[in-house]
Amino acid sequence: MVTDMAGQPEPPGPSTVVLKLITVVGIALSLFQLYAAGVQPLGLFYQRPIHLGFILVLCFLIHPAFGPNRPRGVLGWIIDGALIACGILVGFWVPWNIDIIANAIFPRTIDVAVGVVTTLVVLEAARRAVGWVMTLIGGIFLAYAFAGGRGELPWLADWMPGILNHRGYSLDRLSSQMTLGAEGIFGIPLGVAATFIFVFVLFGAFLEVTGAGKFFIDLAYAATGRQRGGPAKASVIASAGMGSISGSAIANVVTTGAFTIPLMKRLGYRPAQAGGIEAAASTGGQIMPPLMGAGAFLMSEFTRVPYVEIVLISIFPAVLYFGAVYLLVHIAAVKQGMSGMTSDELPSVRDVMAEGWHFLLPIVALIALLIAGYSPMRVGFFAIVAVVAAAVLRALMDFVLKGPTLDGFAALCRAGAAKTLEALELGARNAVPVSMACAVAGIIVGVVGLTGLGLKFSAMMIAFSGGNLVLALLLVIIASLILGMGLPVTAAYIVLIILVGPALTEEFGLPILIAHLVVFWYSQDSNVTPPVALAGFAGSAIAGSKPMETSFQAWKFAKGLYLIPLFMVFNEPIIVGGPVPLVLWNGAIAILAIVAFAAVLEGFLWAPIPTWQRALLIPAVIAVFWPDLTAEIAGAVLICGLLGLNRAARARTGETPTTA
After folding, report:
1. pTM of the entire predicted model
2. Which of 50, 222, 268, 418 could bridge across to 349 with cysteines, CB 3.0–4.6 Å?
3. Domain termination residue (choose one: 53, 75, 105)
4. Which residues of 74-113 are buried (b: 16+ CB within 10 A; e: fewer)?
């Protein structure tokens, strides 16, 4: 029975029916995806429209017409009922008529009409699930396609700079582009969401439901809790483990931060510091292999680089990022004279492993299958099977050890079925925002392809930067920050790479994979960069601190997001490879530069760093990034010398250096 906050039973009503409908639709969507991933792969014009139809229905059930705080009422149900019916239409129309559509010389009027309905419904669903900014951007791109002498809105061309002008397109042509081919709504972004992303979101849901999150957090505490600032370091490690699984920096903050932030505050971190550390660490989860949120799957499709290769080359940059956060956390703990937690306050590694060792099996299986060369979708399917098998194995072991009974076995089966259904529903719910973002991204991709906007934007970027790569990257950072104010990371990455990718690769000569990695990393910055730092705001809510102060702390601890992509650009061997000595050299100076950068930022390493030494470290760090071996060697020598002086200063105080 459902009760209200006073403990009184609530009368049955539409909310109960809606919750049941959400459960049924969510489970059906997850089962459909599992069937397509592991049993019978489907063609793109079956998989993508059916997936989108399910997502639209789920979206309109989860997000009412007038918002979550108002009852739907009769008018709300009329609106949402019509939109749900449109979602069902979207799901079956193209698969049902695929032969006619494929063989038609010109699109039928009915197909154009359904295309218009599909586009409008996608924009409305995105408004509810992602936010009005995503819908506004999609609408602007559609209006841009209509602007021009032959378009539906020719007068708009008068308001655009000459470089952006184009011929303009009719409603029939644009509708066909959006829904009757693989270059619009049913294009690559939605294709990735309907295959790779969904199955790994579902994998994360199964891990969450079975208790893997608590296991990773406890393991991080057991490993680092005794060190100075132990809970903060545990936050970094736990976020590295859970971030790429959750697929959301904000979800990571509220999951791991509920445990880590109160303990950080208790040990002496200021509330804003605690929230900022958790936000910075959680943001890093999106760049941490093997899953990397949704980005690696999209990157693989866009670049045609195998997914496993993207994962492998992303390991070192991700380690650099978390190393920088970890070092900044350690320095802050030493400066404030913090101590670690006592053994009595911490779980032991042995106990944690004894309780949750089975959670490592799916991760091992996932990595092994990736290395073996299986497709990401099939890997995700078998990873889910491995989670279920591990959970069943552990439950059966506990059942046998506690003394098996018939009633106990029945209860075990009921609990297992309930957990499975909960995970299936949770995975579908979690997939709604990213799928809707990818559907609108398909609109943007379709318009860019139709109008040639990508090449026009590249020309503008070159004009603004004057052909200077550093200025061009600064423009990318500014654009990513502006987009990130209203878009989730995945959507910001897609929009940005569509617009600036051609310029970075064709005009500035960056390898395509480095261009995508740089844009993907910069797309994360809206989580931790004021004035809109969503992960920072989530951390401040838990820490009880001021949102902007927490966001500035998150921005400081997450500086690797800006520094490491520059290293990818100017020291390519750490990404594209090369002779082993060159790769090792670049890796070594990257670590050295990160340490020096952290020391400059905090003014402390083993001991306080005088202002003149900090002033010398800045050009030394720049020299390490300079694409010239002589400059790199000079910068590395200067950094080593200055850090050596700092270590000697600590030794002169007569104190034993604190280890991390």
Report:
1. 0.73
2. 222
3. 105
4. eebbebbeebbebbebbbebbbebeeebeeeeebeeebbe
Contacts of 640 by beta carbon, 8 Å cutoff, 6+ apart:
592
- Residue 642 inside a domain? The answer is yes
Residues 643 and 605: beta-carbon distance below 8 Å: yes
φ, ψ (nearest 5 deg) of residue 321:
-60, -50
- Can you tell me the distance from the alpha carbon of 72 to that of 66, in angstroms, rounded to the nearest whole number? 7
CB 437 within 8 A of CB 130: yes
Considering the domain boundaries, does residue 488 fall inside one? no
Question: Locate tokens 């991204």: which residue?
Answer: 441
The residue written with tokens 């792969």 in the block is: 41
Indicate the pLDDT class of residue 246, thresholds 50, 70 and 90.
low
Rounded to whole angstroms, how far apart are CA atoms 539 and 545?
A: 8
b (16+ CB within 10 A) / e for 150-179: ebbeeebbeeeeeebbbebbeebbbbbbbb
Answer yes or no: are the C-beta atoms of 488 and 551 closer than 8 Å. Answer: no
* Phi then psi dihedrals of residue 392, to 5 deg: -65, -45
Question: Could you tell me the two tokens for 309?
Answer: 């290769």
10 Å Cβ neighbour count for 509? 9
Element (H, E) at 367: helix 360-372
- For 144-190, the pLDDT digits (tens) are 999 888 888 888 877 877 777 888 899 999 999 899 888 889 987 88
Helices assigned H by DSSP within 285-359: 295-303, 307-335, 349-356
Record the tokens describing residue 592, joined without a space: 């050295």
pLDDT by residue (tens digit) across 551-571? Answer: 888 888 888 888 888 888 888
**In angstroms, rounded to a whole number, what is the distance separating the alpha carbons of residues 599 and 248?**
30
Nearest to 376 by CA among 436, 284, 292, 496: 292
Nearest CA to 496 out of 140, 123, 296, 488 is that of 488
Using CA atoms, how far apart are residues 181 and 371, in angstroms rounded to an integer?
33
Query: How many independent structural domains does the chain possess?
Result: 2
Overall residue count recorded for the chain in this entry: 660
**Structure token pair of residue 403:** 């003394």
Structure tokens at 203: 């994998």
Note every long-range contact of 622-629, with CB atoms under 8 Å and residues 24 or more positions apart, other chains counting.
Answer: 624/589, 624/590, 624/592, 624/593, 624/596, 625/566, 625/567, 625/570, 625/571, 625/593, 626/570, 627/570, 627/571
CA gap 36, 196 in Å, rounded: 11
d(CA 230, CA 233) in angstroms, rounded, equals 5
Domain end marker among 70, 105, 140: 105
> Could you tell me if residue 110 is inside a domain?
no
Domain of residue 604, residue span: 578-655
**Lookup: tokens for 202:** 């579902």
- Measured from the Cβ of residue 528, the count of other Cβ atoms closer than 10 Å reads 30
pLDDT digits (tens, 9 = 90+) for 572-601: 888 877 788 888 888 888 889 888 988 888
Residue 270: which of 554, 538, 526, 528 has the closest Cα?
554
End-to-end C-alpha distance for the chain, whole angstroms: 51
Phi-psi region of 131 (alpha: psi -120 to 50; beta: other; left: phi over 0): left
Contact 469, 505 (CB under 8 A): no
Sequence-separated (6 or more) residues with CB below 8 Å from residue 1: 9
**Which band of pLDDT confidence, cut at 50, 70 and 90, is reported for residue 118?**
very high
Domain membership of residue 322 (yes or no) is no
